[in-house]
Design brief:
Distance between the termini: 128 Å
Keywords: Membrane, Transmembrane, Transmembrane helix
Number of helices: 9
Mean pLDDT: 80
Number of strands: 6
Pfam families: MHYT
Largest sheet: 2 strands, antiparallel
Number of domains: 1
InterPro entries: MHYT_dom
Low-confidence stretches: 276-284
Helix content: 55-70%
Organism: Micromonospora endolithica
Strand content: 5-15%
GO cellular component, one term: membrane
Strand order of the largest sheet: 1-2
């Protein structure tokens, strides 16, 4: 059995993979929050697609291959089958997109989130092991079944939490904190799955065909840049509630702000001495001149 090194470049690759997962989670949660507030089915489909690209593409798939930069096996070179690698990306983006479609429409409920999380988590696990199956080396891959099941469970739990956060979190600080937690979950699933792997080298060494991970890194980085820039532009260009209210006003459909509860009216001004004289003697009439004793 060959010796495996998951951190060939130290903590640089796991730190970068965690940063990518947090970045993708932040953008994905913001886009997912726009799904339920969208005005038309086309807008909901747009925000759902953008959220799937951010979560499935950046937070999960790109994180996976950034972490794989630090993966090495003694005694063999590692290459990747490009079509299988692309298929793993399609698994991640498609699974997240379907999960968001399940929870992003209709009434939010625990069964709906659970079904979406189960489907999305299974898709994330399929992405991971499909990406591992894309590896080409002079050896065979074997997995510890218990750890594989544990990684799938982590993926399902992480996906369920991600979908729940996608439909409930709205404030900026909460979104950032949620993205930090999601980054831990995504990386935890990846390295749990990687810990289940063992490599048995072949006695006869042959030519390893495929693309090196460094070759795949350039298009992956370019794709991340384009996706992030596009998502940021879409978020900045999206109309806010104030913009919609202004547009409705200009169209003649004025939207008045909600009426505030009226505060109690202040007491009327009291002429000097009037109230005091009206209550003089607790209801006793004022003395008249006849009641006044003679001097």
């Amino acid at each position: 059995m060959a010796e495996i090194n998951h951190f060939e470049y130290g903590w640089i690759t796991p730190a970068l993979s965690y940063a990518l997962s947090v970045l993708g989670s932040c953008l994905g949660l913001v886009c997912a929050g726009r799904i339920r507030t969208a005005q038309t089915p086309g807008q909901r489909a747009l925000w759902g697609t953008l959220a799937a690209l951010a979560l499935g593409g950046t937070a999960i798939w790109t994180m996976h291959f950034m972490a794989m930069l630090g993966f090495a096996v003694d005694g063999t070179r590692i290459r990747y089958d490009v079509p299988v690698t692309v298929a793993s990306a399609a698994f991640a983006i498609g699974a997240v997109g379907i999960g968001l479609a399940i929870v992003g429409t209709g009434r939010v409920s625990v069964p709906r989130i659970a079904v979406g999380g189960l489907f999305t988590g299974a898709g994330v696990a399929a992405m991971h092991y499909t990406g591992m199956a894309a590896m080409r080396l002079n050896g065979s891959l074997r997995y510890d079944q218990t750890r594989v099941i544990l990684s799938v469970v982590i993926a399902v739990v992480a996906a369920t939490v991600a979908l729940w956060l996608a439909v409930t979190v709205r404030r900026g600080l909460a979104i950032f904190a949620s993205a930090l937690v999601m980054g831990i979950a995504v990386n935890g699933m990846h390295f749990t799955g990687m810990s289940a792997l063992s490599v048995h080298l072949h006695e006869q060494r042959g030519e390893v065909t495929g693309a090196e991970v460094s070759t795949l890194l350039v298009p992956i980085i370019l794709a991340v840049i384009f996706v992030v820039v596009g998502l940021v532009y879409a978020l900045l260009a999206a109309p806010t509630d104030e913009d919609r209210a202004a547009a409705a006003y200009l169209d003649g459909r004025r939207i008045d702000p909600p009426e505030e509860p009226m505060s109690p009216a202040p007491p009327a001004a009291d002429p000097v001495g009037l109230r005091a004289r009206s209550t003089f003697g607790a209801g006793t009439p004022f003395p008249s001149r006849r009641d006044t004793p003679p001097r």
